[in-house]
Specification:
Largest sheet: 5 strands, parallel
Structural class: alpha/beta
Strand order of the largest sheet: 11-10-9-12-13
Number of domains: 4
CATH architecture of the largest domain: 3-Layer(aba) Sandwich
Strand content: 5-15%
Shape: globular
Oligomer: single chain
CATH superfamily of the largest domain: Nitrogenase molybdenum iron protein domain
Bound molecules: iron/sulfur cluster
Helix content: 40-55%
Amino acid sequence: MSLLAAKIQETFVEPACERNRRKDADTRKKGCSKPPTPGAAAGGCAFDGAKIVLQPITDVAHLVHAPLACEGNSWDNRGAASSGATLWRTSFTTDLTELDIIMGLSERKLFQALRQIKEAYAPSAIFVYATCVTALIGDDIEAVCKHAAEKLGLPVVPINAPGFVGSKNLGNKLAGEALLDHVIGTVEPDDVGPYDINILGEFNLSGEFWLVKPLLDRLGIRVRACIPGDARYRDVASAHRAQAAMLVCSTALINLARKMEERWQIPFFEGSFYGITATSEALRGIAELLVKKGADEEILKRTETLIAKEEAIAWKRLETYRPRLEGKRVLINSGGVKSWSLVHALMEIGMEIVGTSVKKSTVEDKERIKQVLKDEQHMFESMAPRELYAMLSEHKADIMLSGGRTQFIALKAKTPWLDINQERHHPYAGYDGMVELVHQIDLAIHNPVWSEVREPAPWEDDPCVGERLPRTHNETAQVAPLNALWHDAGDFAEC
Ligand code: SF4
């Protein structure tokens, strides 16, 4: 079995993954990918998943060894933010042509690209991504990277997750494996402290981790490495000296968290910074793990003081939105930790949750939703676009919170919509992030555009037509007679 095949098999039996634990041996071997649903977007390939996880390491040059199209598939598709280096946003590819492949020039071209990047940009490291074409023609990127690292005198890291091996989620995990094999543990820091932590699976989307980091700073907790959001190569390379870790997006990097615990005794827990209660629980969790690793117990008291103060401020700020949002109905089509961590805070200010998706949620996530909602009927695994449209066009929700893929369903149903997934433009993490989310919900619901678009169009009440055009899902069934009416009315210009 090749090294890559062995790595893939290993991720399928990941013992820390609760979904894997529930499967029998045969199902486990088949992995986690499902065949694409006809009519639904297919999601990214394994290469895409690996690049999503690693690209936010900002002072690294990310070189895609492939024909041009692969880089176009993955470049900058998330709004992660950097507080310094901007190199990560520059697109590098070996841009292989048919001639390169037929003449066997691709490995040489890769080495030339590495040398050129080193000379022109002097990066902290270069990550080289294998893709379908270069894996199928048998390019040995491990060997080229090793040779280049010696010749050029900088870390050159092979990321072996070609697209065809599986899903985006598998690519996320293979990216974690690459960090374990080639990066973490390669730099020894000279400033190790008892309050050093790692945050794993945090992408700093729209700069939202910057709303959480000041809280940790106030507690005297240092983030040795936030992987990958706003990370620097050196921080990631020295992450093995942290005392504890928090895993934010458990499906992406759970293998990394588990193996760091086994190799370097860094205990971890799964938490979320979305929602007020979730943020407080996360801060408590970090403090408790640090105490278990030998930090002064006094940090627990400091954490409780900070939580009490910050929660009071956040609830007070949220209270100002109650008169405008009380009784408004929210549909959450997101999944994962957001499916429950947002619910509590929205309900606290009087909003009604008419449904929340549990597609990517763990068993624990689902249990929490049940506790908060007290009604399982509001949980749905996934909803077909047609059902989603019917629900929104019949005005069963005042706003939908979801990702970009479903935005046009909401817009077509003339329903306010807010992006809470990776392409969002506002930071929603921590206490301030929750207030920002409610502020954005308020702006979306009360945007005057909705009353405008729900008005009949001028031609719908035209006396020549006599009837207005259908506006709701149910009314579309009556389109045919209306078309006949238009036909009978003859030339519109005559009216
Ligand atoms: S790696 Fe393969 S599946 Fe992914 S974008 Fe490139 S060719 Fe397509």
